[in-house]
Specification:
Blueprint lengths: L6 H10 L14 H6 L1 H4 L8 H6 L2 E7 L3 H15 L5 E7 L2 E2 L16 H8 L1 H10 L8 E2 L10 H22 L6 H4 L9 H22 L3 H30 L4 H21 L4 H12 L21 H24 L7 E6 L3 H9 L1 H8 L1 E7 L9 E6 L2 E6 L6 H27 L1 H6 L2 H27 L2
Parallel strand pairs: 1-2, 3-4, 5-6
Antiparallel strand pairs: 5-8, 7-8
Helix pairs in contact: 6-7, 7-8, 7-11, 8-11, 8-13, 10-11, 10-12, 10-14, 11-12, 12-13, 14-16, 17-19
């Protein structure tokens, strides 16, 4: 109606004076409309520029599911209208980082998590890796474990521990390279590789292959988990431990030189693999390793797998050795054998292939399980009493305990543990035998209870057999 001014003009004139003149800018687009032009307007469109010709259409758009209509759809429609091309080949739609209760973070709900607090406490790489690792699939949300009272996160702390593991392992490797870089050491000669070297190289190249496959298919979470497993378990927990004797026993030997070359090669390749996930720590270690300040890790070629060095049969072979060492260590701990004490160990199997594997890996078994007298056999000639036993595949593992521990004390400890487990079995059995529980409890809880019962029964059987062995 004539003479009636819009409310905002009235409000502005009351504040600034009646003589204020307000005009609409004729060259402004709504935020989402201008964003819709983004793929090509940033390249100089509507002019035919070199950037537009080189970079448009782009390869991948990464965005959250909550703005598919506001942004992705508008970019697609506008690009189709103005350029007659799709603006991108792939759209990777990710989920949202939700709070510790699974709720969407927002200002109105006041449930936001300040990333700077977690970064100050655990480091940028730790937070970055945590979020990537938790990506289970495209579009799935991440619930970030977080304690608001203490500003702590167990999941981010675990990633920080992973970073510490990488740092410490890298320090160990560099301390044993005698001041040389991976480039100076070169790759190890195939004819000089020992069993552990061939195993870690196979695991490394398989990890490279899987990581590239995951990344090419946007499986970031799976790639992060695979790298964690390889670095923490295969490289740090096993390979480094396996080569320590070779590094320190005879520093002039071919075996020592090959171990150094392999360590340097694996560390350099692993830093490249991990760099997109943890860029800061890998870049820092890279400069120490290469002794080159100008050589930026971010610009290095991403590793390519050498399929000729992937040997799945060898990996399966080595897994038997790893599990045997793990059981031997656990048996030592359960029996209370002093860490520095050497032992006699008997490994018995009628499987000729597994026996051959154990024979090939004798040096690793002796070294990592502190075995002075290792007996590998297809058949026990006599009953071994006062021993603690375990099983890996078809291999029975026995450690005679006479002279190492007080048998009566150990028997009492095992009997006490057995009584506790038998109590758990009774409690779980009684619960499953109650009609009210079976009829009313959720199926998931019933299955969980059955699984717990099966595990307790298995544990009771192991304890009974160990008590019998001590007699």
């Amino acid at each position: 109606m004539p003479g009636i001014k819009p409310p905002l003009i009235n409000k502005a004139q009351q504040k600034c004076g009646e003589d204020i003149i307000i005009q609409q800018d004729p060259d402004v687009l709504d935020t989402w409309f201008s964003s819709g032009l983004w793929p090509f307007s940033t390249m100089g469109w509507p002019e035919k520029t070199l950037d537009l010709d080189t970079y448009y259409p782009t390869t991948t758009l990464v965005t959250g599911f909550d703005i598919i209509f506001f942004w992705v759809a508008r970019m697609t429609m506008m690009a189709g209208y103005f350029t007659r091309q799709m603006p991108f080949k792939d759209v990777y739609i990710h989920g949202l980082v939700r709070d510790e209760n699974g709720k969407k973070m927002s200002k109105s709900a006041n449930n936001g998590i300040d990333p700077l607090i977690l970064i100050d406490k655990y480091g940028t790489d730790a937070l970055r890796y945590t979020l990537i690792r938790e990506v289970a699939g495209a579009g799935q949300d991440i619930s970030l474990q977080y304690n608001r009272k203490t500003d702590e996160s167990e999941s981010v702390e675990a990633a920080r521990n992973f970073a510490n593991k990488i740092w410490n392992a890298s320090r160990f490797v560099m301390m044993n390279l005698e001041g040389k870089t991976p480039e100076e050491l070169r790759e190890p000669a195939l004819e000089n590789l020992e069993l552990a070297d061939r195993w870690i190289l196979s695991r490394y190249h398989q990890t490279v292959q899987k990581t590239r496959d995951y990344l090419e298919n946007y499986g970031m979470g799976e790639a992060a988990k695979g790298l964690y497993e390889f670095i923490w378990r295969d490289f740090c927990d096993w390979y480094i431990e396996l080569v320590k004797t070779r590094l320190w026993k005879d520093k002039e030997s071919v075996s020592c030189a090959t171990a150094r070359q392999t360590l340097a090669f694996i560390l350099a390749g692993t830093l490249k693999l991990l760099h997109p996930f943890m860029p800061h720590i890998t870049e820092e270690i890279w400069h120490h390793l290469t002794q080159e300040n100008q050589q930026v890790l971010a610009l290095e070629t991403y590793p390519i797998a050498d399929s000729s060095l992937i040997d799945l049969d060898l990996e399966n072979t080595f897994e038997l050795l790893i599990e045997s060492i793990r059981v031997l260590r656990n048996l030592r701990a359960e029996a209370g054998i002093k860490p520095g004490a050497t032992i006699t160990a008997i490994l018995q199997t009628e499987n000729s292939q597994e026996l051959a594997i154990l024979q090939r890996g004798q040096v690793y078994l002796k070294d990592l399980a502190k075995i002075e007298n290792l007996i590998l056999t297809t058949k026990l000639t006599e009953e071994v009493n006062q021993a603690i036993a375990g099983v890996v595949a078809t291999v029975e593992i026995l450690i005679p305990l006479s002279g190492l521990v007080d048998i009566s004390v150990l028997a009492g400890k095992l009997a006490k543990n057995l009584a506790k487990v038998e109590g758990e079995i009774k409690s779980l059995s009684d619960r499953l035998n109650k009609p009210s529980f079976v009829e009313k409890a959720p199926e998931a809880l019933i299955q969980k209870t059955k699984q717990a019962l099966a595990e307790s029964e298995k544990q009771a059987q192991i304890l009974q057999e160990r008590l019998k062995r001590l007699q």
